[in-house]
Design brief:
206 residues; alpha+beta; three-stranded antiparallel β-sheet; elongated
Amino acid sequence: MNRTLLLLLCMVLAFVLGMAALSLWQSHEREQQVHEEATVLLERVRNVMKMVTVEGDVNELFSSTSSRNVTLYLPLPSRFSFDKKATVEVRGTVLVGYDLERLDISIDPDRRVLTLRNLPEPEILAIDHELIYRDLDESWFNTFSAEDYSRLNRRAKERLRDEALASNLLERARAQGDGVIAGIEYLATSAGYTVVVEGNGIQPTE
């Protein structure tokens, strides 16, 4: 009888301990839940006149290494270099076209002349990019900070811009702009107007 009672007490104790462990684990899981809050503020709205004629997709993998020199006294002063290295994949879309804010179009109905002034040069209008951190290797005395991630983000965007400028995107955008002017000339000529283009940038067709 005593052995049966002891066995029963052990089973009850094991059940209570099991329930306590389960409750503790569930409480720990609840503490690990991630709560996110965001406040979006619309700061400014402005009218724009931009024409995108070419877009290019860029995918690049680049590495950035930063070193930090630290003097340790062991017990004599010794200078050590601690490195941190980030390997980042950049995926982005570069939009190239024309900012038409300064474009001036005037029509002389008596002379039947349509004049285009201040034609812009093709330029990079926007860069939409995404960073994928492939590898982050840091040292004990040289770790990644929020400013490091911001710097990598800025550098990635600069690399996309440099790649776009080194490619033929601007030339293709210029060709597309010439096609737009050709279309305007065709419509104006069909209506009995002559198109006069003043300024550099997009050139009229001959």
